[in-house]
TrEMBL record:
It comes from the Bacteria. Pfam families: MetW. This is Methionine biosynthesis protein MetW. The gene is metW.
Amino acid sequence: MLVMIREDFREILRLVRPGARVLDVGCGEGALLELLTREKEVDGRGLEISAHGVAACMARGLSVVQGDADQDLDHFPDKTFDYAVLSQTLQATRNPRHVLDELLRIADRAIVSFPNFGHWRVRWSLISRGRMPETKALPMPWWSTPNIHLCTLADFMALTQDLGVRVDASAAFAGNGLARAIDPTRALENWRSETCLFLLSRGTPAERVEPSAVSGDLLIP
């Protein structure tokens, strides 16, 4: 049976090196963690706030604990993991700045993706309808969405600068299209990137990701 893999999951799979120690924060029912374990043979762990998600992960045979990213990342020792993954979850945290800071304390690198509130469809919805947008990246109405800290690509870049975080790779998705490499400093990308994905670190320039270590589809500054 053909199994469809989310395009952002494909990019994360390309970024993570085989056998790495990975923490998937907000892992849901474990689809990404299972993919990484099967395809890259990672030493994977998960942190998930919902009991339903934890139960689903355990049914898959995954090592997952129930916890809240806003509070429970603080309990992990420094550099426990090679990668900390936060896929489509940053905007649902109460303190995104603290969460991002903690990701790069407990892991050498963080992989973060989020819906870009600066995308042109979002802007057009606000201008034309005067209402909160509902798009593929933001499918739920404002009154039921878990998102409490939506941001634009430009906002996220400002946060990385504030934290002294380096962008090692970046990609964007729009509609049903494949991932494409972006220069996140270009203003145009804040208009046309529906969902953004970043590989982040705090290492020295000598530790930056080499082009051979990731897919050519991603931009390596």
